[in-house]
Amino acid sequence: MSAVRSSTRSRSLRPVAETLVAMALVSAVFWVVGLVARPLAAFLFVLSPPTLAHPWTIATSVYAHAGVGHLLSNAVVVVVAGVPVAAATTRLRFHAFVLGTGALAGLAQVWIGGLVAPTGVVGISGAAFALVGYVAAANPAADALGRVAARLGVPPRVVVVAVGVAALAVTLAFSPAGSALVAHLVGLLLGVVAGRLRLLRV
User: Which residues cross the membrane (predicted)?
Assistant: First the structure.
């Protein structure tokens, strides 16, 4: 019995560990290249407009980080929120979710942030917020709140607005100054929607 439990635990930890390794390796390469040639590092790893000019950065920017502190802070969230998600899904779905939400959050930051000023982005924080949103939405407490709202006759649009306001409040509360607020908010909302749909359930 304990052997089975241990095997299950190691399977659920594997995609999280693989994500952490990818973050560390890609970030290290980003830093080393940046020491030699900063423009080349930006060209290879920073998602910035026009995004179609260097489409590989849609993926590489998710795992590259600006510094050790940036890397460690995101790693903590990935571990805390990623373990329960990984335990409830497959390895492939976990990695697809992290890369997909991270990429979409990064694109949102570049496109929406670009309306104010051209901006570049690196880091997995959009995906980390998506993992948090998934955990928050795909649990019995969220189901219970949904049933209460339905019983009280709360219109769906009011629920959507309330979720949006709550997501914005969480984003502002847990985003350090100068961070990618749009990416965090979009990632969190993507996670909440995916969690309500149980998108990763197997």
Answer: 20-47, 67-87, 94-112, 118-137, 158-175, 181-199
**Residues in contact with 93: Cβ distance below 8 Å, sequence separation at least 6, in sequence order:** 200, 202
- Cβ–Cβ < 8 Å for 165, 107: no
- Kindly indicate the confidence band of residue 201, based on its pLDDT and cuts at 50, 70 and 90: confident
Choice between 152 and 100, residue whose per-residue pLDDT is larger: 100
Q: What is the CATH number of domain 2-196?
A: 1.20.1540.10
Write down the pLDDT at residue 158.
Answer: 59
Show the tokens assigned to 12.
């659920």
Other beta carbons within 10 Å of 53: 9
Of 118, 140, 137, 127, the residue nearest 48 (C-alpha): 118
* Max intra-chain CA distance, the chain: 62
**141-171 core/surface letters (b: 16 or more CB in 10 A; e: else):** ebeeeeeeeeeeeeeeeeeeeebeeebeebb
CB neighbours of residue 202 within 10 Å: 7
Q: Which pLDDT belongs to residue 202?
A: 76
- Token reading at 15: 């995609």
Instruction: Considering only residues 18 and 148, tell me which one the structure prediction assigns the higher pLDDT.
Output: 18
Quote the DSSP letter at residue 137: H
What are the CA-CA distances from residue 81 to residues 33, 45, 88, 128, 136 (Å)? 31, 25, 12, 7, 9
